[in-house]
Design a protein that fits this description.
Helices cover about 35% and strands about 20% of the residues. By secondary structure, the protein is an alpha/beta fold.
């Protein structure tokens, strides 16, 4: 249920109203927008009389929310959420590019790539320390050592770091990580999501390869229900019958998610395409659709990468993508 309050509501009436709602075992979360103050009720609101609330002097309107996700719903929070990642804002008109290798392989590699992507215009560094792989024989990442090397690259460049978590027990190890990524395979690992809801660190939540947009928003709801509202949604392609690409990038997800949720939406064209030559056109299409950012895989030597080299850009190719994306964004602003 959403309650739209009148402008400058009486504080004493509002306090009594909040106490009454608490007695009804309903949590009230207030969002002050540019033009409205909205109170979102979370919990069992079936026993609450809408007409009784609508009759209060401080209330402008009352609406029931049909969607099962409440905190992530734009009806609860009309203004765009801006997520702060180590001083870098994402969402609300703040466009950012995250770049780096699929997996951290050595100090020389991650520091070199970090410097190159920063020089090209990236504002965050990605790199996998823990790698979920289909085959148990594939490279699984450097784990603790990978996190340590990411921290070194962060000190060298000042770029906030983004890396994937696999297990809730690893959370203490991620103290120096600025944006914790939940990969597609863990999108519905609800116990992990609950634990991430208890910390106050931004979360990058990737859509599962066979999940609907509502399921993605419900996974975000798990995190937000714990009190962590700093969530970024990521469309990374879904599995279809097409075999030419690794996945099929769902461009429609960008405007749909942005209309239904106030959370920032970014796109991973690298995992969607699975081919480096498709990263630029998919990036451009995502920008045209209104995305808040991109996360792109960049490797200093893609043919010899230990993970996903076929979809990784060289630093030179990444520079070209950043330039083209910048030109497109300027053209869209002028148009």
């Amino acid at each position: 249920m959403v309650i739209v309050l009148k402008e400058h509501p009486n504080e004493r009436q509002l306090e009594k109203f909040m106490q009454w709602l608490s007695g009804m075992h309903v949590e009230a979360r207030i969002t002050k927008g540019e033009h409205q103050t909205i109170m979102g009720l979370v919990g069992d609101t079936s026993r609450i009389d809408m007409d009784l609330i609508r009759a209060l002097d401080i209330v402008e309107d009352v609406r029931r929310i049909q969607e099962p996700y409440k905190n992530a719903n734009r009806k609860f929070h009309p203004d765009d959420t801006i997520v702060n990642v180590g001083g870098v804002p994402v969402g609300g008109g703040n466009f950012q590019i995250i770049a780096g290798p699929c997996s951290v392989e050595s100090e020389e590699q991650i520091v070199y790539v970090a410097k190159r992507v920063k020089a090209a215009g990236a504002t965050m560094l990605r790199g996998g320390a823990f790698k979920p792989r289909t085959s148990p024989y594939s490279f699984q990442g450097l784990h603790n050592e990978g996190l340590r090397l990411l921290s070194i690259a962060k000190k060298e460049t000042g770029l906030p770091i983004v890396t994937e978590i696999m297990d809730a027990n690893h959370i203490p190890m991620f103290e120096d990580v600025d944006l914790i990524q939940v990969g597609a395979r863990n999108m519905q690992n609800f116990e992990l999501l609950k634990e991430l809801g208890q910390i106050r660190k931004p979360i990058l939540l990737k859509r599962g390869l066979a999940n609907t947009m509502e399921e993605l928003l419900m996974s975000a709801e798990y995190i937000m229900a714990g009190g962590n509202n700093q969530v970024i949604l990521c469309e990374r392609g879904i599995r279809t019958f097409e075999t030419y690409t690794r996945n099929t990038l769902d461009i429609s997800a960008i405007p749909i998610l942005k209309s239904r949720s106030h959370l920032p939406v970014i796109v991973d064209p690298s995992h969607a395409a699975g081919k480096s030559n498709l990263v630029k056109p998919l990036s451009m299409a995502s920008v045209a659709a209104g995305v808040d950012g991109l996360i792109i895989e960049v490797h200093n030597d893609p043919p010899h990468a230990m993970c996903d080299g076929q979809q990784s850009l060289t630093p030179e190719a990444f520079e070209d993508v950043v330039k083209q994306v910048s030109h497109l964004r300027e053209a869209l602003k002028e148009g």
